[in-house]
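Milestone 3.1: sequence recovery, worked example.
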């Protein structure tokens, strides 16, 4: 059994059934993705548009491609025809661009709103006021070609587990508030994407139902 298959099996056994696993395949060759695919996995995460489109062309068409990195507005058009979920929507402008490209491709593009929960300036994400601007006004009503499926957040990169836990807990509270308020009538608002290789266990304990795991499945990242 290959190490990729072994690692996937370990995660499938460890994660609760309701938690979706996004195998983060960024920088990894298509051969490694095919190993995971042959092991039955179908959800893969990429953070660069060019790499994602290349792999989309090369690999089986029943793969569900998730855009997990920071997405520039001028690159949305390249992934709009096929992307399954965009995790990092961090501005109204980006949301409007995704909607426009969704219209052109005659499809509704699923998105997660990325919330800034870390105490690091390097992390992207919406602040509370920006979030309220999106959900409180008429912005979403006018965007017919996007579907807000939930929230995503990245905790501070620190060894302080309690700090990480408190950030995830705050995001879960915000998710519940939106789920019971603005998205009360929307069953599709159901995804809380938080947790990566180093902190996924805490994320799951705090209510995550989608984790993004790369190095723990594919080994250390290959830098080009």
């Amino acid at each position: 059994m290959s190490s990729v298959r072994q690692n996937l099996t370990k995660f499938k056994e460890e994660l609760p059934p309701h938690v979706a696993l996004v195998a983060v395949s960024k920088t990894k060759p298509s051969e490694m993705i095919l190993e995971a695919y042959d092991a039955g996995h179908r959800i893969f995460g990429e953070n660069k548009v060019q790499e994602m489109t290349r792999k989309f062309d090369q690999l089986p068409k029943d793969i569900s491609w998730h855009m997990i990195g920071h997405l520039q507005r001028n690159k949305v058009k390249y992934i709009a025809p096929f992307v399954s979920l965009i995790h990092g929507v961090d501005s109204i402008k980006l949301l409007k661009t995704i909607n426009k490209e969704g219209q052109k491709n005659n499809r509704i593009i699923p998105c997660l709103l990325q919330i800034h929960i870390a105490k690091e300036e390097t992390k992207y994400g919406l602040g509370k006021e920006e979030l309220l601007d999106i959900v409180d006004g008429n912005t979403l009503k006018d965007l017919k070609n996007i579907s807000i499926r939930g929230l995503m957040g990245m905790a501070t990169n620190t060894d302080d587990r309690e700090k990480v836990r408190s950030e995830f807990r705050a995001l879960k509270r915000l998710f519940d508030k939106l789920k019971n308020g603005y998205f009360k009538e929307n069953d599709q608002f159901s995804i809380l994407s938080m947790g990566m290789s180093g902190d996924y266990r805490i994320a799951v304990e705090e209510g995550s139902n989608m984790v993004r795991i790369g190095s723990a499945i594919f080994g250390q990242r290959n830098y080009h």
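The longest helix spans residues 161-180. The chain has ten helices and eight strands.
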